[in-house]
Protein: Amidophosphoribosyltransferase
Organism: Anaerorhabdus furcosa
Amino acid sequence: MDEFRELMGNKLNEECGCFGIYNVKDAASLSYFGLHALQHRGQEACGIAASDNKNITCYKGKGLISEVFTNKIIEELPGKHAVGHVRYSTAQQNQIENVQPIMVRAHQGSFALVNNGQIVNAEEIKVELENQGSIFQGTSDSEIFLHLIQREEGTMVYKIMNACAKLEGAFAVIIMTKDCMYAVRDKNGLRPLSIAKLEDGYCVSSESCAYDIVNAKFVRDVEPGEVIRIASDGIQSFKYTEKTQKKMCSMEYIYFARPDSVIEGVNVHNARKLSGKLLARKDKVKADIVIGVPDSSLSAAIGYAEESRLPYEIGLIKNRYVGRTFIQPTQKQRERGVRMKLSAISAIVKGKRIVMIDDSIVRGTTMKRIVQLLKDAGAKAVHVRIASPEFKSPCFYGVDTSTYDELISSRLNVKELKEYIGADSLKFLTIDEVKEANGPDLCVACFSGKYPTNLFSLGNIIKK
Ligand code: SF4
C-alpha cells in the first residue's frame, strides 16, 4: 500500500463515499452507477446491500466497483432500496471485515450501514462496549455505530439518535433497514451528505455528482446533527442535538470532491477557480504561462490565468492508466513514480517561465519531482503556487495523514520548502482566502491546528 501511495503521488486519501437509493426499481443497479461517480473517494474496496422489504442481501469485495460487481451479482441483489460504499483504507485496515456496508442480522431487525468519516472517541467507546460484552469483527469505526444502535431501546430513529449523541468526530452515515432509510450527519457537519429526489423515491449521496448519473434531482444537504428518516410515508427530520455548527472539511473543496459536485451550495469547480484568482491577485511574479497539476488543480490554474491575464496552458499530462494493478514496483520503478504518472510537454514548457498551480503540498516529495520534471523538459523558471495554506497538522476526521512527521510544512518554513522542492518561488493561499473561496463555515484544522472537536486519546500525538 505504501508503495502504491508513493507511486500515486503521496497525496491525501479520503476514507470513503456513500450512496443510497430508496423506493426505486433496480436499486442495486442504480447504486452501482452512483458509486461509479464516487469512485474517486475510495478505490480499495466497495459493496452494495439491497432490500426487497423482506430481506437484505449484501455483496462486497476488494477492488474498484467495475472489478467487484458483474451483471449477475447485481441481479442477485433484488429490491427497491439499496446502500453502497466505496472505501479507501490504510494498510492496517485493509481487511474484508472493514469493507462496507456493514450488516447487522438480529431478532430486533436487520440493517446495513455505510459511513464516511472517523470517530475521535472510538477507542474509548470500544473499550467500554467490550467491557460490556460486545465483540468486534473488524477495526472500522462504523462497527461502533452498530453496537451502539443495537444496545438502545425504542424505535429505530430513537436508537440512531441516542447512538449519535455518544459519538464525537466526523460521520456521514446511511442506514438501511428492510423498509426504511436514515441519513445522518455529525453535529459539526465535517463530511458531506445530501438527499435528492428520484421518481417516487429518494437518493442519498456523499457528493451531488452521483445524482446526475442516475438522473436524480438534488433536494438539500443533510444538516449537521440531523437524522433524516425516509420511509413509504415520505421524509421526516429529527435533530439528535441542538449543539451544532457548520465545519465542512475545506479539503473537500480543495482536493477531494469532483469539480461538478455542489457542497453546501458551493460548486467545487467555481470554488477552486476563485482560489486560483485569489492566488493571482496578490502575485507580482513575471511569467509566460500558467499550468496546473492534473486533475484537481486545473480549475485553480484556470482561475489564476484569468486573473493574471497570462495564457493558460496544458504543461503536464497525466497517464490515466497507472492504476491499481501496478502496486508492487521495484525500488527503481518507485523512484520513477512521478514520471510514470505525469509527463511534461516539452514543446509547451521549454524556455518558459512557468506559474505552476497545485492544490496542496502534503509530504513534499511529489512536488519536488514535478518541479524537476518541468526543469528537465526545459522550463526556464518554475514558480509554484498552492491553492491552500501550509498543511501543518494531521487530520483526525477520516483523511489519511496520521502524523506530523509526514507533513513537510510542519518541519520546514516556506523558504526552506522552496529550496527543498527546487522551485524559483513558492506561495500559499491564506486561511482567510480559503474561506473567501469556499465559504466561511469550514474546518481548517490541518492548516490552523485548531480542531473543532475534542480529540480524546487521538490528541496524544499533538505536538507540545
Ligand atoms: S483537519 Fe483538514 S482534512 Fe481534516 S476535516 Fe479538517 S479540513 Fe478536512
Notes: The first strand starts at residue 16 and ends at 22. The chain has two domains: 2-246, 271-319+327-461.
